[in-house]
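(Deposited chain)
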Amino acid sequence: MVDSRTHYSTIVIGAGQAGLATGYHLAQRSEDFVILNAEARVGDEWRRRWDSLRLFTPTRHSSLPGLPHQKSRGFLGKDEVADYLERYAEKFELPVRHGVTVTGVAVARLAASAVARSDAGFTVTTSAGVLTADNVVVATGATTAPAVPGFASELDADIRQLHSSEYRNPSSVPPGTVLVVGAGTSGAEIALELATSHPVFLAGRPTPHIPDALLTVAGELYWAFIYRVLTIATPIGRKAGPKIHSRGGPLIRISMKEVQAAGVSLLPRLTGVEGGAPMAEGVSVPRPSTVIWATGFRPGLEWIEGVPLDAGGLPDAPRGVVASMPGLFFVGMPFQFGLTSQLLGGVGRDAGYVAERICMAQ
């Protein structure tokens, strides 16, 4: 049955791992809530990612609360993640409304005059009409809006440009030299895959690489370290957090040595465009046929009226709680509590904390 109500105690926006984990904890507490999913199915956002994408966290550490994976070795592919999320929503009978896009969230008293007033704390403007809620949990994560440098628009029109979120496989990239911009995990993996069929250059400052041997021999200790120690509750975690925000997470399962051995040429960070072609400090950049921007995402939270944001566009919400807007919460933001806050194996902790805060406020 299609839920046609217009008011809920809690509206969760997003049916990815953050939204589903939040839904699980709210259901465990018998809360009234709905999860709004812009996609036709749970997991569709993962299904659209590039064909060979795999998680960089081991399968045994990639489960949401209450549903461990049947296999514990290796790394999940993107379709396996999508199917797991769909199975998770079905197993716990989470109330997901599919195909509902949210375009605005506002405190009820600040809503437009055309919107009917109610006792609800928030109005949520959607493709299915205006909904109201006492609480809103934004679980869209910080990867909703592709981040591309401003100078990208200065490249010549005959240089094809796409963001890493649009890349699918080597056959989808026209022949010719490819410049991958961004030396994090995504950029390194895309460059490595393309090197079998294209001349490839990779521009950017690589993040540190976690040696494979360390993960093989001390994988459990490494997970315990990033899950329990690299958090805002510890001095080392509070020191590491800003660096991870600015530089990204470490390279896991892939190294720059492996990328170079495959024939990829490394370049420093791009500094701009000259004569319609990319340029980098101190070196000549061969003119590419295609540029793939593996430059990450920005939060893209402009649709939430009045939400306090930091310089990086992330919400000012310690542990996901927006103190200046009671009833507004976030789950799935980078380093919300720790390094694993955005991961399948770590988001459940933040979701449980937020669900508990919602219950305590009633």
About this structure: The longest helix spans residues 212-229. The radius of gyration is 21 Å. The CA atoms of residues 13 and 36 lie 5 Å apart. The longest strand covers residues 129-138.
